[in-house]
Design goal:
Layout: H1 16-19, E1 25-32, H2 36-47, E2 52-55, E3 69-71, H3 72-81, H4 84-90, E4 92-94, E5 96-101, E6 104-110, E7 122-124, H5 127-139, E8 144-147, E9 151-158, E10 161-168, E11 171-182, H6 189-193, E12 199-213, E13 222-226, E14 235-240, E15 245-251, H7 258-261, H8 264-275, E16 282-295, E17 300-301, E18 304-306, E19 312-313, H9 321-340, H10 350-374, H11 379-392, H12 396-399, E20 440-443, E21 446-449, E22 458-466, H13 472-480, E23 488-496, E24 504-507, H14 512-516, E25 524-527, E26 533-537, H15 542-552
Parallel strand pairs: 1-2, 1-11, 2-8, 5-13, 11-18, 22-23, 23-24
Antiparallel strand pairs: 3-7, 4-7, 5-6, 9-10, 10-11, 12-15, 12-16, 13-14, 14-15, 16-19, 17-18, 20-21, 22-25, 25-26
Helix pairs in contact: 2-5, 2-9, 3-4, 3-9, 9-10
């Protein structure tokens, strides 16, 4: 029981396979695990028209605050799913982080220093609030069948799909599916049932989470201390969450007794030493955790996909867990939709493991570096770390070495085989494979944001100065893209004017789109359904657009030496 939150109890309903004897249930997609990533996956597929059966072995949301920080890219994905604003409204938005060595600030950063972005660099929100809002969103979608207290006890996977045995309060039943998505966390039961391994490194250290309820006028920032006077020789992290709940992480060392450290009589003195005797507070939730950096070799095994913590795990420093998991389903859902609809070959699904495997390696590398800096494993490492911190207050080169947790940023999939290489020079970050930058627009429905107009389908951004000046031949060529087997929606991005009938016009009201995409009149960008750049050109050629769509969907015919 928490002071600031009452856990919902979701209703169990007898599955139709049990209510009607002899009925066999078959579903296009079954998702196991209704945590943040499983819920996000189900919602993502459902809004693209794919029916989903979502199974969870519990009947409530996560116990304790657990995941706290959700990055700008995750919020943009949540916007695409229709629940971003609810999360921002409840969460604590922040941009600035500060790092202290003993009692001196040595480093600060701003996650989003540029103006004209819709979402903040990060919000802090207890995981139970996040899950409750995702459950509400899932309940709005008629093609999600969310079943609580449905525990998967066996899985058989083959060339034609998977069959699951599920235990409920009413007994057992079986369902089959074409595709199975395991989103059942770091201890994935599906992974164990299939006899699959996960490999990596466990870090020999422990941290205490103390969520406290208090009134404080501290700014909404991330504060991290190395060797502070109130917790000498260790590190401490402070975050503000919703409802005046503050997350404090105390480094404990490997030799501590976790059960002893969780006792209030041991937690309260640590918090009081940090906050002072005069500030009242109440303990909300306490936990001790270790962490690890691990991943499966492949995230796809035939018809079974592993996603989020079931596929890869990182230390909490950098907020890479749920943020990475949301990017997993952002990558998988559109590919699965195309394959289900017969518009892309099965091999497109292999690129989920390729692209998100690359992202997992990147996250594990950054997380490992952060953890090694925060918890040095030798006297030499500790001396180096403290020397860097001592110099960071005065020297820029040392500040670049300070690593209190490189915070989650989306991966640039620049090596993906789904990209089309540039034919002309461009500047800026919007390279093929990049997650697309946001910017303000004036659209047909009024003031809005670029990413709000993108997603769930292939789209072509065509840049012009005056939309009204587009000639008839170009207008017809743009419009014809929407009639292809894999349709492409054309979007005219202009400084002014209205495009010919049938074409949607986005006005670049602040000039930020042209700036961030290095766009001049005639420039065209092909956007993937997950809001990544697939290709870009200095002039619009419908044939090249179609070729790039074929590449991005694995529909292009591979070129062999004989063909050359």
């Amino acid at each position: 029981m928490l002071n600031t939150y009452r856990y919902p109890k979701f209703e169990y309903r007898t599955p139709p396979e049990m209510a009607a004897p002899g009925r066999k249930g078959h579903y296009p997609v079954v998702v196991v695990g209704a945590g943040p990533v499983g819920l996000g996956t189900a919602i993502d597929l459902a809004i693209q028209g794919v029916p989903v059966l979502l199974l969870d072995n519990d009947n409530t949301v996560s116990i304790g605050s657990r995941g706290v920080c959700y990055a700008k890219r995750a919020l943009e994905i949540m916007d695409r799913l229709g629940c971003g604003q609810a999360l921002v409204d409840k969460g604590v938005s922040w941009q600035v982080g500060r790092t202290f060595f003993r009692d001196q600030e040595v480093y600060s950063f701003n996650l989003c220093p540029q103006p004209d972005h819709h979402r903040p660099g990060m919000i802090n929100l207890q995981q139970y609030h996040l899950e409750e809002r995702l459950v509400a969103r899932a309940g709005q979608l008629s093609n999600i069948d969310l079943r609580w207290n449905n525990n998967v006890v066996s899985v058989a996977a083959g060339d034609n799909g998977a069959t699951l045995s599920v235990e409920t309060p009413d007994g057992f039943y079986s369902v089959s599916c074409d595709w199975l998505i395991a989103a059942d966390g770091a201890r994935s039961h599906v992974r164990k049932l299939l006899g699959l391994d996960i490999e990596g490194r466990v870090f020999m250290d422990r941290f205490l989470i103390a969520d406290v309820v208090m009134q404080a006028d501290f700014p909404p920032e991330r504060w991290f201390w190395f060797d502070p006077p109130f917790h000498p020789g260790q590190s401490v992290l402070l975050h503000r969450q919703a409802d005046n709940v503050w997350r404090i992480d105390f480094q404990l060392g490997w030799d501590c007794d976790p059960e002893e450290e969780k006792k209030p009589e041991n937690v309260i003195p640590r918090v009081r030493a940090m906050l002072g005797d005069d500030r009242p507070f109440e303990l909300e939730w306490v936990s001790v955790y270790t962490f690890q950096c691990r991943r499966m070799r492949s995230f796809r095994h035939g018809p079974v996909f592993f996603i989020g913590d079931s596929a890869h795990q990182v230390s909490p420093f950098g907020a890479r867990g749920a943020n990475s998991g949301f990017q997993d389903h952002d990558n998988l859902a559109w590919k699965l939709k195309l394959v289900i609809d017969g518009k892309a070959p099965d091999r497109l699904l292999d690129t989920y493991s390729e692209e998100r495997g690359f992202a997992a390696d990147e996250n594990i590398l950054n997380s490992t570096r952060s953890t090694d800096f925060i918890t040095p494993k030798s006297k030499v490492s500790l001396l180096f770390r403290n020397a860097v911190l001592g110099l960071a207050g005065k020297h820029a080169f040392a500040r670049a070495l300070v690593n209190s947790g490189r915070l989650s940023v989306p991966s640039y999939l620049t090596q993906s085989r789904l990209n089309t290489a540039d034919e002309a020079p461009f500047s800026g970050a919007m390279v093929p494979g990049a997650p697309m930058d946001d910017a303000p627009i004036l659209g047909p429905d009024g003031n809005a944001w670029l990413l709000g107009a993108l997603g769930n389908r292939f789209q072509l951004l065509y840049f012009v100065d005056d939309a009204a000046a587009i000639d008839g031949r170009t207008a017809v060529a743009l419009g014809s893209l929407a009639d292809d087997a894999v349709p492409v929606e054309p979007l005219v991005v202009a400084r002014s004017g209205v495009a010919p009938s049938g074409l949607k016009t986005l006005i670049d009201v602040a000039g930020r789109i042209a700036e961030r995409y290095d766009a001049t009149a005639g420039t065209a960008y092909l956007a993937r359904p997950d809001q990544h750049v697939a290709a870009r050109w200095r002039s619009f050629d419908p044939l090249k657009v179609r070729q790039s769509v074929a590449v991005a969907t694995c529909n292009a015919v591979p070129v062999t030496m004989e063909a050359q």
